[in-house]
Amino acid sequence: MAETQKHLSDEGHVTEVELYTSRMAAQMRPHITEFTALVYDYLAARITELSKETALLELLRASIESNVETIFDALEQRLSPDHLRPPQAAFDYAKTLAQRGISVNALVRAYRLGQQRLLQRVYEVVIADDELPPQLVTAVFQFQVDEVSDYIDWISQKVADHYEVERESWLANRATARETQVRRIIDGDDVDPSSAERILGYGLSARHIGVIAWTPPGTDLTSDQLGRFTAAIRALGQALGTKRPVLIIGRDQNTAWGWISVPDDWSFNSALLAGFADSAATGISGSLAARHGSVQLAIGSAHPLTAGFRLSHQEAVRVQQVSIAGSCDAPLVSHDQWGMSVVSLLAGDLEATRTWARSVLGPIAEDTEANARHRRTLREFLRHDLSYTATAAAMLMHKNSIRYRIEMAEAELGTTVTADRLAIETALCAHHHLIPTEH
Known about the structure:
Blueprint: H1 3-7, H2 16-28, H3 32-46, H4 54-77, H5 88-100, H6 104-127, H7 137-186, H8 193-200, E1 207-214, H9 225-240, E2 247-252, E3 255-262, H10 271-277, E4 296-299, E5 303-304, H11 305-325, E6 332-334, H12 340-346, H13 350-361, H14 369-383, H15 388-395, H16 399-413, H17 421-434
Parallel strand pairs: 4-6
Antiparallel strand pairs: 1-3, 1-4, 1-5, 2-3
């Protein structure tokens, strides 16, 4: 305490400074509404995070009023923070901010700024008090500063602790509620879209692309896997041109589910796959084969409404199964890429599909460099509707070279690609996606 206060007091007795402070606090008590308004206006103008909604503003006002009243009580009755109970309104406000995801830093900063504005007004009261001896003005105000500062330190810690507890509880409960709601939609339960949207924080009326994010077995896991999944899915959302929030649900340390709303005019372009492979947002650098700790994404096709939310997720799950079965190291695979929709259904019986594909392709199913070249040439030829010109352009080769390659491949195949085009094309897709090769 100030030296002035010390020489005025006998040990164990109430000092003059304390008596004057107690009297002044009692005189200020009827003006709590005025003090509250001063602090409220000051905070509302300076901390925009705390003043976004009318409901939040009302809670802010109630919190300020309860704290000002408690401060006046403590000053009047000469009570230390150890003998006080935190105002319930202050806890209620901290709880609401925690549930809204507003930073605890904004909450603590409000107490510091509120202290500043309150003491400015208290100082005006002190210097205007005609009954206060001039030689005690500094000591009385310093005493009040010390007492209010002690209270703000104490209440700030209390509400910050309460905030953290409520935030963890809210996130756990919200995550559980969101996961439960997602599971109900995926399982085909009858859900109310409006209620589901409130729980999920995600609109169900648009077109959805389901996403599965995962890290392959054997990769190093970080302490924030969900954060890495979230970053990759959000990067994909930007690449898809979405303007809306994405929905992300953590499934386990290796997997997360996501949904991205895409514009009505969005359509798949294979350039997306190549572009995303180069994106730093995936955390991949260097060779894709060296995907140490990398994130991979599988996506479904775009479908509308709640049914589309479920369907695109189911497609993404199957695409992930194809990617894993084929040991694919691409950071992004899509249900819309050539042949994937059919192959993802065939992957339900993986061994039977592999056996069938090998039987259809015969010699060119074997894992050699020449056969890999035959399969790729045939795939591109069929993909470009048997056009030598279009295939040559896609493979950056001369049309006559493509013609020669097709003849060589058909000779190995033992038939023309048009003899049973559907079976050969499907088998080529299945082999490409489901049978790991070295070449």
